[in-house]
Amino acid sequence: MKNLPARLIEDAADANLIASYRAHLAWQQPCESVEAGGLLAVAGGNRFPGPYKNMAVRIDGTLAPKAFVERAQAFFGPRDRKFSVVTRGRYDADLESWLLSAGYERKSESPCLLVEKPVVVRAVDDHVRIERFADLGHVRDAVAVSAGAFETLGLPVEEAHTMLARHDRLLDPDVAGFVAYVDGVPAATALTLYSDGAAGVYWVATLPASRGRGLGEVCTALATNAGFERGAGVVTLQASPMGLPIYSRMGYRRCDQLRRYRQPG
Q1: Which residues contact 147 (CB under 8 A, 6 or more apart)?
Q2: Which of 21, 119, 134, 142 is the most buried (most CB within 10 A)?
Q3: 188-227 burial by CB neighbour count: b if 16+ within 10 A, else e?
Q4: CA atoms within 13 A on the CB side of 98
Q5: Are the C-beta atoms of residues 38 and 62 closer than 8 Å to each other?
Q6: Is 90 exceeded by the pLDDT of residue 18?
Q7: What is the DSSP string of the chain?
Q8: pLDDT over threshold 60, residue 254
Q9: How does pLDDT run across 95-125, given as a tens digit for each residue?
């Protein structure tokens, strides 16, 4: 994607974000979804409106906000589910305005970042070893790290296990994951998802006891570079407040803003 206009590079990054929602359809179990008429909606394995389940995202910007929400309600209503709407600033300004006017509450937001070339991988100390996903043991370790790490950020511990229930699918060719071990104990993780010339880094996590050692940064760097090795022209991620300065230092730049709105009532 060298020498492409910034808009096309950013579109490729956004397409990978949408691909990540589709990938989570295969990663969680059970899962019901619909993708039709400009809507992608995911019910997921329980009622919790998490980042990858009980959520809806508009995949056709020509779909009017009211029609989009009505289609989401038609999907979730019979399942007796509350849902969240995911928006991206570059594509969904009209939808965000409609949601706010309809009483939807903004629950979270995070910057979307991208990088167009491999990043530096920092050295680790002798107590640390980092392994790439090669078997189900690596995946189980990564999921356990994610569950414990995100619990400290307010995500119930069972949510990572629900959204990453199909461990075998995290060994698919389009996924590359890494686990950092400190003295043999799983401590940090990150994975990258490749799709159509782009890649995205997801599920970056470090357990509290191992934070401050740079392990999340190293796993992110390895996942980033794995995307480029797979053939991506751009790698994207969505940053937490804690991770934003780290990713910026690595060379990632902001390209959009992801927001999540909760259905009223």
Answers
A1: 157, 158, 159, 160, 161
A2: 142
A3: bbbbbbbbeebbbbbbbbbbeebeebbbbbbbbbbbbbbb
A4: 14
A5: yes
A6: yes
A7: -TT--HHHHHHHHHHHHHHHHHHHHHHSSS--EEEETTEEEE--SSS---TTSSEEEES-TTS-HHHHHHHHHHHHGGGT---EEEEETTT-HHHHHHHHHTTPEEEEEEEEEEESS--------TTEEEEE--SHHHHHHHHHHHHHHHHTTT--HHHHHHHT--GGGGGSTTEEEEEEEETTEEEEEEEEEEETTEEEEEEEEE-GGGTTSSHHHHHHHHHHHHHHHHT-SEEEEE--TTTHHHHHHHT-EEEEEEEEEEPP-
A8: yes
A9: 999 999 999 999 999 999 999 999 999 999 9
**Tokens 């990258």 appear where?**
192
pLDDT per residue over 149-205, tens digit each?
A: 999 888 899 999 999 999 999 999 999 999 999 999 999 999 999 999 999 999 999
Q: Which residue, among 142, 222, 236, 232, has the nearest Cα to 194 in the 3D structure?
A: 232
Instruction: Please list, in sequence order, all residues whose beta carbon lies within 8 angstroms of the beta carbon of residue 2, skipping any fewer than 6 positions away.
Output: 116, 233
- Nearest of 257, 233, 235, 259 to residue 247 by alpha carbon: 235
Closest CA relative to residue 147, chosen from 207, 91, 92, 106? 207
In angstroms, rounded to a whole number, what is the distance separating the alpha carbons of residues 237 and 131?
21
Distance between start and end Cα atoms, the chain: 44
CA distance 34 to 72: 9
Establish whether the linkage from the previous residue to 30 is cis, with ω within 30° of 0: yes
